Amino acid sequence: MAIQPTSAVTRAVIAELILLREKFIKNRLIFVESARMIPILKVLGATDEDLEKTKTVSDSLRDDPTLPFRKSKNGRFCFDFEQSQIRRLEFQPFVLSAGEDFVRHDSGQTREFQEIDEDLQGNSVLHALFVFKALIFHGVPVKQRPKLDYHTENFICTLFNLRTVTNKDLVGEPALEGVHSDGVDFTMTTFLGSENMTSDSAVTFVHDMRAKNALRWNKVNPEHTLGSHQHRNFLDTLLFVDHERKHSLSPVQAIDPERPATRDMLIFFTRKPVVEGHISHPYDSLNSHQRLPMRVDLA
């Protein structure tokens, strides 16, 4: 979408975006707190009404296919820079392998998630988050992953809407896999809200590439940890270069153990399309979604 510098607020947001992009290029990671993120998203088109709706969109999530403590939906989108738009792609199964630095009991398993529906897809906050991510990462060179097509200008984004739940029977793990990467070029995580969650829950630890895959967050050599960030407030957002950093998370703990604790997130996995020989090659269609079409202009 085009941003017209017609007000002092808009000009300030443009300056902020330039600074964030420069910081991202230098540090390969940015954490944007709610107080900074909301004005950016509003200039990018998010409405006050949709900001409120986003806080409860996770109430419609379904049981996760492999994790009993999680509710989930996903959807595939294309950052189509050739056409200056973001568009919804057709449904495909999802797979992430140990070879992509993701070591868990379901590594390499083909999973099918319930699809993100119009309640999220049609929300102007989501559209603004997509545009924000595009403005920050487009054109940033990264360490390339094997079997991805770096000749195309376009990217595929798999978006997950997730709710992690801790109750009397289960401890909710935002990253049961421990130290990992997400098999993509750029990962962005945005906080939607929580209920009954302790203030020290769900801390994201960022590691260098020496950290051993599958280690628990509290078992990593401190020399391999670069820092930590915690999503505390609505729309706190973390964005990093996935193949240059690993990460892990601490669990969700309940303030009142008699009631469930929940943590709601949007996770944006963004990478180049795969080529033949990649585990996701059978599930990487670039065809637009026919039942749930969506297009957001980038120019």
Radius of gyration: 18 Å
Quaternary structure? single chain
The CATH superfamily is identified as: q2cbj1_9rhob like domain
Structural class: alpha+beta
Give me the strand/helix succession. Answer: HEHHEEEHHEEEEEEEE
Tell me about the largest β-sheet. 9 strands, antiparallel
Task: Bin the strand percentage.
Answer: 25-35%
Straight-line distance between termini: 4 Å
Overall outline: globular
The low-confidence parts are none
Helix content: 10-25%
* CATH structural class: Mainly Beta
Mean pLDDT: 96
What is the total tally of β strands?
12
CATH topology: Jelly Rolls
| Architecture (CATH level 2) name | Sandwich
Key phrases:
12 strands, Jelly Rolls, globular, 3-stranded antiparallel beta sheet, 299 residues, 9-stranded antiparallel beta sheet, single chain, 5 helices, alpha+beta
What does this molecule look like?
With 299 residues, the chain is of the alpha+beta class. The chain has a single domain, classed as q2cbj1_9rhob like domain (Jelly Rolls), CATH 2.60.120. The chain contains five helices and twelve strands. The strands form two sheets. Strands 1, 2, 3, 4, 5, 6, 9, 11 and 12 form a nine-stranded antiparallel beta sheet that branches. Strands 8-7-10 form a three-stranded antiparallel beta sheet, with no helix packed on it. Helix 1 crosses helix 5 and helix 2 packs across helix 5. The chain starts with 7 loop residues before the first helix and ends with a strand. Pfam families: 2OG-Fe_Oxy_2 (PF10014).
